[in-house]
């Protein structure tokens, strides 16, 4: 339990230093050219994969109904002598 108190005691001065830092300006959050490149490539890959999957799913050939229906010649035996 002593290690917990020691880690808390070490974290408090670090939090105080962070609280004293000046507020960040919007220019501090600007992307570098490498950041823009990585973002554009990753978003482009995800969008192209989504578009590819949607085109593949929505352009499937129509399903023929003949092999989905059961044969009508099945004799269940309940039509003769229902009682």
SSE string:
HH
CA-CA gap between termini: 80 Å
Number of extended strands:
0
Please tell me what the overall shape is: elongated
Counted by DSSP, the helix tally is: 2
> What portion of residues is helical?
40-55%
Let me know the average pLDDT. Answer: 77
Largest sheet: none
Low-confidence stretches: none
Question: Beta fraction of the residues?
Answer: under 5%
Q: Give the class from helix and strand content and strand pairing.
A: mainly alpha
Over all CA atoms, what is the radius of gyration? 34 Å
Characterization of the model:
This protein has 83 residues and is mostly helical. The termini are far apart. The mean pLDDT is 77.
Characteristics:
83 residues; 54% helix; elongated; mainly alpha
Q: Briefly, what is this?
A:
With 83 residues, the protein is mainly α.
Topology overview:
Blueprint: H1 2-20, H2 33-58
């Amino acid at each position: 339990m002593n290690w917990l108190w020691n880690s808390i005691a070490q974290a408090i001065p670090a939090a105080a230093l962070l609280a004293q830092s000046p507020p960040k300006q919007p220019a501090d959050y600007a992307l570098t050219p490498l950041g823009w490149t990585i973002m554009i490539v990753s978003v482009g890959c995800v969008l192209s994969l989504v578009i590819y999957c949607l085109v593949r799913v929505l352009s499937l050939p129509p399903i023929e109904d003949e092999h989905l229906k059961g044969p009508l010649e099945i004799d269940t035996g309940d039509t003769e002598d229902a009682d």
